[in-house]
Amino acid sequence: MNKIYYLLLIFLCILYSPASADITLFTHSNEQGEMWASGEITSRYENWNWFEPSPQSNDNHDYGYYFIQSRFALGYKFKWLEAFLQIQDTYVGELPDDAIASAPAGALGLGATYYVHRRQSDAHGTFVKKGYLRFKNILFDGFSLMGGRFDYVDGLEVTYDNPKIMWLKKMRLAERMIGPFGWSAFTRSFDGGQTSLDKDLFNITAMFSHPTEGGFENDHHTITKISLLATTLTLKHDKIIPHTENRLIYFYYGDDRGSPKVDNTIPDSQKNKGKIEIHTIGYHWLSALKFGPGEGDFLIWGSRQFGRWGSLSHNAWAWAAETGYQFTNISAKPWLRIGYFMSSGDSNPDDSTHETFFQMLPTARKYAFFPFYNLMNNEDFFIQMIVKPIRKIEMRIDFHILKLHERNDLWYMGAGATQRSGNIFGYTGRPSFGDRNLAKMLDLSMMYDFNTHLNLNAYYGHAWGNDVVENIYTRNDSADLFFLELTLKF
Q1: pLDDT in tens, the chain (490 residues)
Q2: Cβ-contact 481, 46 below 8 angstroms
């Protein structure tokens, strides 16, 4: 615990330091271009109180751990060229070595997931997070070409100045399928190339890459046996259709690592072997418009998948529909939203088709703030309220009712591949024992911007387990997650 007290001391020193509002690093510009340096330090303490299995060895379900993530970047921007290099150093401490219960209880929270990757209570990694060259307006206006190591954020190929549209894109569309796993300690990157044609009315983006290790893994080596292709066509907001953005997607995911797949077939059966090749086509429609005393928003997202899951054919789908209304002319500007998500599961483990929607390489926590589930074989009804009592504070409360779509499939967790090889697939699955009702969940989160450099993020989530959870965690079917995170940018 001495390390926790030390981190708290650092937090207080930074918080009350007058210099924290005026920190800047090197910036130099002239007619040739601009060069700059920047940095970022994130520290987080997490406390997990996982669902409690029957008494057994390695059943520590209540523990805390922390990490410190530091990034330093150098950039150069010229009228036709941008060069960028970012180094990341991450240290994770006090991971539990006794929180991996026997199956089906498994890892009792994400602290156990971090631990199982290296079998060490402390993990440290230093690596190149980003390093790329980007050529702008080559061949013709609006065309760019980028190569190297970069972040790819599904859904943010186009950005705007409109804060409402950007919140919806960042929090309710981006990274559903592909993302840099930003909430994790080690994150992930993508090694490859990206092209973009950006015009006033539309944007076309194409990306081919291999993801890196990361997330819960402290290395950042390229996973060459996973290939990723992403192509998108975005009709820009309020350009062709008033108040609306439309986007078409095509993603290809190929995985030839040979890691045991997580599905509802018999482990290591002949059906479970072979390469994964999945094609995803999809669409989103996003709109926000003013009427009455505020502004309404509407969102539809859907995708269809086909391909191969080893020796099985793959056929799956998912969709989401959400709407909200924000009262912009009253104090705190309350924003009430409601939505429903549904994805396919596999109803028959013995047939020749794998029907569980596969989330590929997402940032899963965007859609599961308490990440004991993800968007595979899932139904999620939620009500959400966002308020800003003062300009620097945003508060959010969510209530979710969670079910499995197919009772013969698994309860899935995870955010995709984290290792090049070995037995860690990137997703875990627990049996449902023929039930569908998973849990009810309440989220409370607060973000406070002290200034342009310093941000505090606090979160508490509580889950009331239902039938699926109760079948596995017989001693206590409730769980809690609390974290406190401080980010300093300079």
Answers
A1: 445 544 554 555 555 444 444 445 667 777 778 899 999 999 999 999 999 999 998 999 999 999 999 999 999 998 899 999 999 999 999 999 999 999 999 999 999 999 999 999 999 999 999 999 999 998 889 999 999 999 999 999 999 999 999 999 999 999 999 999 999 999 999 999 999 999 999 999 999 999 999 999 999 999 999 999 999 999 999 999 999 999 999 999 999 999 899 999 887 677 778 999 999 999 999 999 999 999 999 999 999 999 999 999 999 999 999 999 999 999 999 999 999 999 999 999 999 999 999 999 999 999 999 999 999 999 999 999 999 999 899 999 999 999 999 999 999 999 999 999 888 999 999 999 999 999 999 999 999 999 888 999 999 999 999 999 999 999 999 999 999 999 999 8
A2: yes
**CA 463 to chain centroid:** 20
d(CA 383, CA 391): 23
- The answer to whether 218 touches 118, Cβ cutoff 8 Å, is yes
What is the C-alpha to C-alpha distance for residues 43 and 317, in angstroms, rounded to an integer? 37
Q: How far apart are CA 180 and CA 175, in angstroms?
A: 8
CA 362 to chain centre: 5
* Domain at 2-489, CATH from 3.50.50.60, 3.40.640.10, 2.40.420.20, 2.40.160.100: 2.40.160.100
55, 41 Cβ separation under 8 angstroms: no
* 438 φ/ψ angles, rounded to the nearest 5 degrees: -95, -60
Q: What are 412's two structure tokens?
A: 């899935």
Contacts 24+ apart (CB under 8 A), 349-352: 349/263, 349/264, 349/265, 349/266, 349/408, 349/409, 352/271, 352/312, 352/313
Beta-bridge partners for 388: none
Distance (Å, rounded) from C-alpha 468 to C-alpha 476? 13
Strand partners, 301: 284, 320
The Cα 164–Cα 168 span in angstroms is 6
Amino acid letter, 426: G
Residue 294's alpha-carbon distances to 211, 322, 326, in angstroms, are 42, 17, 5
Distances (CA, A) of 220 to 71, 80, 332: 14, 30, 42
Coil, strand or helix at 478: strand
User: Distance between CA 147 and CA 137 in Å, rounded?
Assistant: 15
Query: Which residues sit opposite 356 in a β-bridge?
Result: none
Q: Which tokens go with 90?
A: 């991450």
Instruction: Give me the residue spans of the domains in the chain.
Output: 2-489
CA angle 189-192-198, nearest 5°?
A: 95
**Distance between CA 486 and CA 109 in Å, rounded?**
22
